[in-house]
UniProtKB/TrEMBL annotation:
Transmembrane segments: none annotated. Pfam families: MarR_2 (PF12802). SMART domains: HTH_MARR (SM00347). This is MarR family winged helix-turn-helix transcriptional regulator. Residues 17-148 form the HTH marR-type domain. It comes from Pendulispora rubella.
């Protein structure tokens, strides 16, 4: 005698985390393809575009700082910077903080291309716009937590996010804006948290863990 069979999709559906990962993989492929297409139109490689965009967003940086922020190896950064200097899109000057390092600054044309490269992920923002406000909030919270986990695993550069910032004071009050940014001395709501803040100051490893624990324990 055979037992009662489960409904088809209960037996033939991958767990939700695996399907979310598949969805993110598809989005990742679309991003790669768009970045490649748009970089090509500008006569750049995707990495060169990312470098120019980072220099426009954060101001002059060294090669090591770029490598850290973009999660790209230093030799790859150095190769791309060499080409950007040859194309007169970036200039090198002595870094007053580290005399042996060079500070990279975009030229006028480099800054213009960098500003355009910053808008490359806009096609994604347009699709996120179609989500309902509560879906956007849940998605943002999920994305932020995923990035934090990947940062802890060393797979995503640690930086730019409020939840790893020395100025971030999580859940210091109740209400719609429970957090506080000590850099600008202003309250922050969950949906206002930054993922790529130019003023970000990286907290020490232990402090990062404490900030996260406090963040995950709403008053
Ligand atoms: S400085 Fe930027 S990253 Fe740091 S807490 Fe303030 S808004 Fe967030």
């Amino acid at each position: 005698m055979t037992g009662k069979r489960l409904p088809y999709f209960e037996e033939h559906t991958e767990p939700l985390p695996a399907r979310i990962a598949t969805g993110l993989h598809k989005i990742g492929l679309a991003m790669k393809q768009q970045a490649w297409l748009q970089a090509n139109q500008e006569g750049l490689s995707a990495t060169q575009g990312q470098i120019l965009a980072a220099l426009v967003a954060h101001g002059p940086l060294t090669g090591s700082e770029l490598s850290e922020r973009l999660g790209i190896t230093l030799p790859t950064i150095s190769d791309s910077v060499r080409v950007l200097v040859e194309k007169t899109l970036v200039t090198k000057s002595k870094d007053p903080r580290h005399p042996r390092a060079s500070l990279l600054t975009p030229t006028k044309k480099g800054a213009m291309l960098g500003a355009r490269a910053r808008s490359w992920p806009e096609f994604l923002a347009a699709s996120v716009n179609d989500l309902a406000p509560e879906e956007q909030r849940a998605f943002f919270s999920g994305v932020m937590k995923m990035i934090r986990t990947l940062q802890e695993q060393g797979l995503v550069p640690v930086g730019g996010m409020c939840v790893t910032c020395t100025y971030f004071r999580p859940n210091v009050r109740t209400g719609a804006s429970p957090h506080h940014c000590a850099f600008v001395d202003a309250p922050l709501a969950n949906e206002q948290l930054r993922l790529d803040c130019p003023e970000h100051g990286l907290a020490a490893e232990r402090a990062r863990r404490e900030i996260w624990d406090q963040f995950m324990r709403p008053g």
